[in-house]
Design goal:
Length: about 325
């Protein structure tokens, strides 16, 4: 699926810093052919050897295919691209990193230059991987990272997510259904980032894609496309301006939160809250249940009410 979301043929290195047995790199090798420049790193020596063997035995070993063993966060085997060199770095970074690791190196790596958005907390190893992938990108490069859904809303990661948005690095967040990725008990998220430069300006909005209800046919369609672009689709996609995301929570969860440009406010009892009761027939006619908005979000999609105070509270 990830290979189907990459636009065109990336001219440059495809890098996976947590390559495991090489599944993602092998998928890109099949699509890009013998000229693919592939690189990967894996902590487990056995898996690193398997990944190297799989790429060798395919008969399409590219001129720059390199698999190295080591801890990508603590012992990065690939040097970071120097600043000011547009051709240095990876054109594409793909990664399905380990998650929930509290011993990822928070104390040892406190002053590492990879933390462009802020030092992640000990509980946010996934955000450390996101920044590691981003640090290896060349200007104009793209990173696609598979993450658990909790990373999008965990309070301890607010500062990193906020700085990521302010710099215009995050382009898309795609929520996928449960069972689509091995090792994830819940439906994973795909975070798509790009480094500004080489004609690509910082993002001023984030495309949210709620694919939690995608069936197998829709998933096969995405996998079969050379470049699958999520087009405007009510209830599935929404381009959310950064100003609407930069609140106290910095919640980047697409599922059920950004089904449109504005969320739907939900009074507990329409009779008790007549000011908001007109939203209920509007939401029913749209085929969507009313939804409680969280503090700091923009107003109701239909009545444009700026807030919903909730039961027992007054404006």
């Amino acid at each position: 699926m990830i290979t189907g979301m990459v636009g065109g043929i990336p001219e440059g290195v495809v890098f996976d810093p947590a390559c495991g047995s090489g599944n993602l790199l092998r998928a890109f090798q099949r699509r890009l052919g013998a000229g693919a420049h592939l690189a990967g790193q894996e902590l487990d020596p056995a898996l690193a050897r398997i990944a190297a063997y799989r790429l060798d035995w395919s008969g399409q070993h590219g001129p720059a295919t390199t698999i190295r063993q080591g801890d990508s966060l603590r012992d990065d085997q690939f040097p970071l691209p120097p600043a000011g060199e547009p051709d240095a770095g990876a054109a594409l970074v793909v990664c399905d990193p380990p998650f929930g690791d509290r011993n990822w190196g928070h104390e040892d790596l406190a002053y590492d230059r990879r933390w462009e958005f802020d030092l992640p907390t000990r509980a946010d190893s996934e955000l450390a991987w996101v920044q590691h992938c981003y640090a290896h990108l060349r200007p104009g490069g793209t990173a696609i990272v598979v993450l658990p859904p909790g990373v999008a809303s965990r309070r301890s990661g607010r500062r990193v997510r906020k700085e990521m948005l302010r710099r215009g690095a995050l382009r898309q967040v795609v929520a996928l259904p449960t069972g689509v990725a091995g090792g994830h008990s819940l439906g994973p998220h795909l975070w798509i980032l790009s480094r500004p430069g080489d004609g690509r300006s910082p993002a001023n909005s984030v495309r949210m894609v709620d694919g939690t209800r995608f069936d197998r046919e829709r998933l096969r369609q995405i996998e079969g496309d050379w470049w699958h672009e999520f087009r405007d689709e009510p209830g599935v996609t929404a381009d959310v301006p950064l100003i609407e995301l930069l609140d106290d929570d910095v919640d980047l969860s697409p599922a059920g939160t950004y089904s449109g440009r504005r969320t739907i406010c939900r009074p507990s009892t329409p009779a008790r809250w007549p000011r908001w009761s007109r939203c209920w027939p509007a939401s029913r006619s749209a085929g969507r249940a009313p939804r409680r908005r969280s503090p700091g979000r923009p107003g109701c999609r239909w009545c444009r009410s700026p807030t919903w105070p909730g039961p027992g509270r007054s404006r």
